[in-house]
Design a protein that fits this description.
Elements lengths: L5 H11 L4 H12 L5 H5 L3 H16 L2 E7 L6 E7 H5 L11 E3 L2 E3 L4 H7 L5 H12 L11 H14 L5 E6 L6 E6 L1 H27 L3 H5 L3 H12 L1
Antiparallel strand pairs: 1-2, 3-4, 5-6
Helix pairs in contact: 1-9, 2-4, 2-6, 4-9, 6-7, 7-8, 9-11
Bound molecules: zinc ion.
Zinc ion binds next to loops.
């Protein structure tokens, strides 16, 4: 597999920019798994989705993933480095397959579709209940969930699908405060695609204005040649 081309990047950005983050995730997943339908991908457990996104990210932007989070205590920037290949290599750790048993009931793992439906709830607890209800696979009367029960099911699911949420333990270099930060791969990858698309548009604008070349022709230039032209145009 190769990286995505400039015109593919622009087309992807155009298709995704007005979408909800979950749909963007599915759009990106479809880039990596083109043979699967959108509906099938919406039913993938989140850990499996994240592994495929890590693979996509590695081939489009390299395997080194640098990000940062602000310290909750002092606001200092806490930088961290992740190796996308290590993420993608955790394939054996997704909990696809057997349902998860919690307190005598069985649950499948949550998917993008479950999250999208839960996002319609205004309240965080009701959203969690909706996911737990949707994922319960054994028959029986609908449960009246307590917060403890919902939390227990959530913990069981997280243990069964550790890649569903990529959490890093960080220590603030300024004040030593320790915290756990979740890395949202969809957001992360999308912001890179957006940055690349905007850079391309600025370059297209500069060259089209200066030389009157059509977009297609400018995009067919090599990256190096295009940048040199842009440098000359900008003086
Ligand atoms: Zn701090």
């Amino acid at each position: 597999m190769t990286s995505i081309s400039d015109s593919e990047c622009l087309a992807l950005w155009e298709r995704g920019y007005s979408l909800h983050a979950l749909d963007r995730g599915l759009l990106l997943l479809g880039m990596e798994i083109p043979e699967a339908s959108y509906d099938a991908l919406a039913d993938w457990p989140l850990g499996e989705r994240n592994l495929a996104l890590a693979a996509l990210r590695s081939r489009c932007f390299g395997s080194r993933l640098q990000a940062w989070a602000a310290c909750a205590q002092c606001g200092e920037k806490m930088e961290f480095d992740l190796d996308g290949r290590l993420l993608a290599g955790r394939a054996g750790q997704t909990g696809a397959g057997a349902p998860v048993e919690v307190n005598g009931h069985f649950y499948r793992l949550p998917t993008s579709r479950d999250l999208a439906q839960a996002a319609q709830e205004g309240d965080a607890f009701q959203a969690a209940v909706r996911i737990v209800d949707a994922c319960r696979v054994d028959a029986g009367a609908p449960a009246q969930w307590t917060e403890e029960e919902v939390e227990a099911v959530g913990n069981g699911m997280a243990l069964a699908d550790p890649m569903a949420e990529i959490v890093m333990d960080l220590t603030c270099p300024a004040c030593g405060n320790q915290s756990s930060e979740a890395l949202d791969l969809v957001d992360f990858l999308w912001s890179e695609i957006e940055a690349r698309a905007r850079r391309l548009l600025r370059e297209l604008h500069a060259l089209a204005s200066a030389y009157g070349w059509p977009e297609k022709e400018i995009l067919s230039l090599s990256d190096r040649r295009r940048r040199l032209y842009v440098e000359m145009v900008r003086g």
